[in-house]
Specification:
heterodimer, A: alpha/beta, 43% helix, B: alpha/beta, Rossmann fold, binds guanosine-5'-triphosphate, binds magnesium ion, binds zinc ion, ATP hydrolysis activity (chain A), lipoprotein (chain A), transport (chain A), nucleotide-binding (chain A)
Chain lengths: 336, 234
């Protein structure tokens, strides 16, 4: 006798809400909750079973698999990645790429190089946790070890979240519903509070505030970017984040990076923005499909970063005044 | 020979994924072929031919391509064997979300498209629920949130199945898929094998060519919908 499928349905669906969603998706009419799943299915007409698109034993099997899967997802929520190590392969000419770089949680690594030099390929290698099986021959270690096959293939263990520039929203939901949907999948304890936090953080990152009721498809480029960064920092399952450029478009890049770092993420950014590139701990220089250098941000560069930030703030201020309909006539005061 | 049934709604990216995977399998020295089943027309054959992949095309015309597939699958297998293939993919479009070409003991792949929206995995029937391997395409053009939610919904729709993202254009993810496929069971013959789930019955008069509308023309397997009127306001 199987404990689960012989439980009264009302008990079963109370303990495992996923089961009631599944049964509802089969399109049966409301069952009598005192019956067990097995008995209930036995007394349904064969015709109804055929309509549901699964046979009885398949439904029973599905319910048991579903319960196990949801339990596994809950366990996996706490998987941790402390470091990622990149071991070089070869460049486009087939010459060796003699580097080994480790990045720990909470660190930012920038990737710089001319267009077409192989930055995307590097991001792709990280994305699929390459094991010498991509054209570059690179290998990626997780916590210092070759990742288990499961890590690479299983959807739920997806280590890497990717924020790319050419993404769209397919659903038409408000920002609140959208993040709420994500929070539900991530099985967080207090989904509503989490949603509020993500949206507040996003608003913190962007000059143009938006309300939780705004439809995600109505958000501006900057607002979208801010929302995705806040979501990935606070809610995403993936400990590693790949970002291909955070454009200027109304996102506070400094705060965005701080948010990702406090979320203990391992962050890779492909960028030429000095504010981002010099804020990272190190930067990888790519040429000809290969890594040619790894620069650690120096003390002098950090000092320069302060000046560049001041210049940027001046520009931001001008932009803000333009937005408010003011004139820009007095001579611009560049910081020293 | 290994037979792999690949199913998915129209334009989800079945051909793209098969092409990317075949390229990898070809590099491993395996001979790959495709049998494409569609209803009215297809230009997939030229896509396969361009890559030097042997292809057979079946157009089902007025019947469902998945029904048509099952009636022809033994000949399809024999064709693949005559071509000396190591791996034969069948490609068919589950037009009704209910049909599924998956056969017990034969590796079953379902391709779904992340652009179709997060509710789609729940709506697809046996084609997804009873597949061994679920491939999600077009993840490159949706948001990270929707990618994660979509993956979660796929896991609920087919718990425990292998599932992965594959970009049909760049081939990202295709090598993992190829690794799964080379491990598929071999199918020397289909005699006595069974479908994983019966196809929907197609025996109402409209299935067999009736075009007149009205009660008197509805014989055989007719199913009536209930249209509830709005409750009167109190
Ligand atoms: N952006 C993007 N486009 C894709 C992806 N996969 C496929 N496509 C595109 O989607 C379109 C349809 O792809 P096909 O591979 O022909 O789809 P199919 O399922 O074989 O279509 P039918 O056989 O006609 O049902 C093509 O234009 C592909 O280039 C993907 O992962 N990302
Ligand atoms: Mg096709
Ligand atoms: Zn059909």
């Amino acid at each position: 006798m199987n404990p689960v499928i012989d439980l009264p349905l009302e008990r079963l669906t109370l303990d495992h809400p996923c089961v009631s969603d599944f049964l509802a998706s089969l399109g049966f009419s409301e069952p009598d909750g005192r019956q067990s799943l097995r008995h209930w299915l036995d007394q349904l007409a064969d015709e109804d079973i055929l309509d549901a698109g699964m046979e009885r034993h398949q439904i029973l099997d599905h319910v048991q698999r579903l319960i196990r899967e949801v339990q596994r997802m809950e366990q996996d929520r706490h998987a941790r990645v402390d470091s990622l190590t990149l071991i070089g392969g070869r460049n486009k000419q087939g010459e060796p790429e003699p580097v080994e770089i480790s990045v720990r949680a909470g660190q930012i690594l920038c990737i710089v190089g001319p267009t077409g030099s192989g930055k995307s390929r590097l991001l792709a290698d990280i994305e699929c946790l390459a094991q010498g099986d991509t054209p570059t021959g690179r290998r990626i270690l997780v916590n210092g070890q070759t990742p288990a096959g499961d890590f690479r293939h299983a959807l739920d263990r997806k280590l890497v979240a990717q924020l790319s520039q050419n993404m769209n929203f397919v659903v038409d939901l408000s920002a609140r519903e959208f993040i709420g949907m994500h929070a539900q999948c991530r099985m967080v304890n207090e989904p509503q509070a989490m949603v509020e936090r993500v949206i507040a953080c996003a608003n913190d990152l962007t000059g143009e505030k938006f309300s939780p009721e705004t439809s995600v498809t109505q958000l501006s480029g900057g607002q979208t970017r801010a929302l995705m960064i806040a979501d990935v920092a606070l809610l995403s399952a993936s400990p590693v984040v790949l970002i291909d450029e955070i454009e200027n478009a109304g996102v506070d890049r400094q705060r965005a990076l701080e948010l990702l770092v406090t979320g203990e993420k391992i962050v890779f950014i492909s960028t030429h923005d000095p504010l981002l590139a010099l804020r990272g701990d190190r930067r990888i220089v790519i040429r000809n499909g290969g890594i040619v250098d790894v620069l650690t941000t120096s003390a002098l560069e950090r000092e320069n970063l302060n000046r560049i930030e001041a210049v940027d703030a001046t520009l931001m201020n001008i932009r803000d005044r333009l937005r408010r309909g003011l004139r820009i006539e007095e001579p611009v005061q560049w910081p020293q | 020979m290994q037979l792999i049934t690949v199913a998915g709604s129209p334009s989800v990216g079945k051909t793209s994924v098969i092409l990317r995977v075949s390229e990898i399998l070809g590099q491993q020295g395996l001979r790959v072929g495709v049998a494409k089943f569609d209803s009215l027309s297809t230009s997939d054959d030229s896509l396969y031919e361009q890559k030097g992949i042997p292809v057979a095309v079946g157009l089902a015309g007025s019947i469902c391509p998945d029904h048509y597939f099952v009636s022809n699958v033994e000949d399809c297998l024999a064709w693949g064997q005559r071509q000396g293939l190591d791996i034969l993919f069948s490609e068919s479009a589950g037009l009704c979300n209910r049909c599924s070409p998956h056969i017990a003991g034969v590796m079953a792949v379902c391709v779904v498209d992340a652009l179709a929206g997060v509710q789609t995995p729940k709506k697809i029937g046996p084609m997804l629920r009873l597949a061994d391997l679920v491939v999600i395409t077009k993840g490159d053009i949706v948001s990270q949130v929707e990618r994660e939610v979509f993956a979660y919904k796929v896991r609920l729709a087919n718990p425990g199945a292998r599932a992965c993202f594959c970009n049909g254009i760049t081939g990202q993810g295709a090598s993992d898929l190829a690794n799964e496929i080379v491990q598929a069971a071999h199918t020397p013959s289909l005699e006595g094998q069974r479908l994983r789930f019966p196809m929907p019955a197609a025996v109402c008069p409209y299935c067999v060519g009736e075009t007149a509308i009205g009660e008197t023309h509805q014989r055989g397997n007719v199913k009536k919908m209930t249209f509830a009127d709005q409750a009167e306001a109190v």
